[in-house]
Write a structure and sequence with these properties.
This protein is mainly β. The chain is about 0% helix and about 50% strand. It has strands at about 5, 10, 20-25, 35-40, 45-50, 60, 70-75, 80-85, 90-100, 110. The strands form two sheets. Strands 2-10-9-4-5-6 form a six-stranded mixed beta sheet, with no helix packed on it. The protein has a four-stranded antiparallel beta sheet with strand order 1-3-8-7, with no helix packed on it.
Amino acid sequence: DVQLQASGGGLVQPGGSLRLSCAASGFTFSRYAMSWGRQAPGKGLERVSWINSGGGSTSYADSVKGRFTISRDNAKNTLYLHMNGLKPEDTAVYYCARVDTGARGQGTQVTVSS
């Protein structure tokens, strides 16, 4: 079965950086497009970034463009989200997901606060 485990969240000051990781198992990771999404308290799920199976094509929500970078290491079955210039409005639980089914695992909390 598909398993996706996000990690790397934490408390960071505004302007700081974090790198999230997502360990994938139970499927052939290199064959599937993947995404990162987030859900802030009281709000719906927002997709923040997408990457194709080979890693050569990416897209970003306007809210994170220029600050976040998605990447993947297919040899390690791992998806990453590098987050720079963090803002309080980036505070949310972040999830990784397989694009075709939307299957996602447990998320990781990111809190941006001084």
